[in-house]
Amino acid sequence: MDRRRIVLVGYGNVGKALVDMLAEVDPEGKRFLFSAVCSRSIGVAELRDLPAAKVDKKLKMLGGDEGAYNPEQRVADIKAYLKEGDFDILVELTSADYETAEPALSYIMIALERGIDVVTCNKAPIALAMKDLKEAASRTNASLKFESTVMDGTPVFSMFKSLPPVKLMKIRGVFNSTTSIIIDTMREGKNFTQGMKKVKGLGVAETDPDNDLSGMDAAAKLIILCNGLAGSQLKFSDIIMETITEPMIKEVISKVKNDKCIRVRQVASADFENKVFRVGLEVLKPEDMLFSCTGATNAAIFSMDLFGELVIAERDPTLRETAFGIYSDIVDLYSKETCYY
Ligand SMILES: NC(=O)c1ccc[n+]([C@@H]2O[C@H](COP(=O)([O-])OP(=O)(O)OC[C@H]3O[C@@H](n4cnc5c(N)ncnc54)[C@H](OP(=O)(O)O)[C@@H]3O)[C@@H](O)[C@H]2O)c1
After folding, report:
1. How close is the Cα of 83 to the center of ligand 1, in Å?
2. 122: CA distance to ligand 1 center in Å?
């Protein structure tokens, strides 16, 4: 059977969760092998096509020379490896930089220009450069897949692919678990810091949690949905963003008190007809479908010309759900040629 060789760039919370999932579903590496794992602290660890189940142990054996830690040199080494290395799929899972999307954007572009398929969960390159990346992919007949950039493992983009052409009228959703958990923790009478500690323990915060609070994370997801599903050309400057602060949460909570029939959430919305795109706090009542977003739950409502309202949700996502989204994309690439179910 044809085995696919993966280069993984980014071995943080999500990278490790993906390796764990592949070790669970394909312990002997009958379908997927790791050619290399790269990050700023690891550099390029060439694994010479190891099954996922052996990756973590091998990386620990290789260790790292902390004295030689030099992020700029490491990034240059990774780019050089991506230009020359022999592998089939780049899985890009590094932290998001919403200013430049670099160096993730370069990593992805290098692979696509070589005709190598790419799977990423990094919102920055997709939100900032989806059009350029898709054009590069189509020039070389490579695939670019980014299902887990929005709602982790929920099949949003693949679901839309299964629908006939529709016109999106509105999108409204809760897309950021970090703010949901902080708000609920504060409603329980605890403070902001305790809420953030809980989020970090779950591994669902952005590498820089300011991106959750400023609305950048949710705005990036909204841009990816609008540009990816409705053909918009939205930029961050088109989104009205409200930064969530501790005093702001306190003020809203004091107004709703302990009313169990009210939920407070960061909501992202797109109204295509009126061209209004925003991310901000909303007070939700039970008749609102988004009221069902308890805990870390995310949900999206899509209003369409041929279908009233389609609601899709993921209950309390964890890193496993994100890994599932990446795994689904990898399998989808693989099943272009081989059906193994
Ligand atoms: N956590 C979630 O629930 C979730 C859900 C969906 C999407 N995402 C997205 O997934 C990505 C990874 O999230 P995470 O939680 O795994 O973050 P993380 O734990 O902070 O890990 C980030 C990884 O990326 C590496 N990295 C950062 N900048 C790099 C660079 N310039 N070159 C090479 N490697 C670099 C880091 O390497 P060093 O540590 O060696 O510097 C680390 O291995 C982010 O883009 C995030 O937005 C996360």
Report:
1. 21
2. 8
User: What is the third-level CATH fold of 4-153+320-334?
Assistant: Rossmann fold (3.40.50)
204 Cα nearest atom in ligand 1: 3
Q: Each residue of 237-269: pLDDT tens digit?
A: 999 999 999 999 999 999 987 788 999 999 999
pLDDT tens, position by position, 194-244: 999 999 988 888 888 899 999 999 999 999 999 999 999 999 999 999 999
Amino acid letter, residue 242: E
Pick the CATH number of 156-316 from 3.90.226.10, 3.30.360.10, 3.90.1150.10, 3.30.930.10: 3.30.360.10
What is the secondary structure of 164-191 as a DSSP string? Answer: PP--EEEEEEE--HHHHHHHHHHHTT--
Q: Six-digit token pair at 96? A: 């998001």
> How far does residue 93's CA lie from ligand 1's centre (Å)?
5
Report how far residue 335's alpha carbon sits from residue 120's, in angstroms, rounded to the nearest whole number: 18
* Domain regions of the chain by residue span: 4-153+320-334, 156-316
Determine the residue type at 284: L
Model-level pTM? 0.95
Task: Count Cβ atoms within 10 A of the Cβ of residue 152 and give its class: 0-12 exposed, 13-18 middle, 19 or more buried.
Answer: buried
CB 166 within 8 A of CB 306: yes
CB-based pocket (< 6 A), ligand 1: 9-15, 39-42, 75, 78, 93-96, 103, 121-123, 148, 152, 203-204, 206-207, 319, 322
pLDDT range class, residue 338, cuts 50, 70, 90: very low
Atom of ligand 1 nearest to the CA of 122: 45
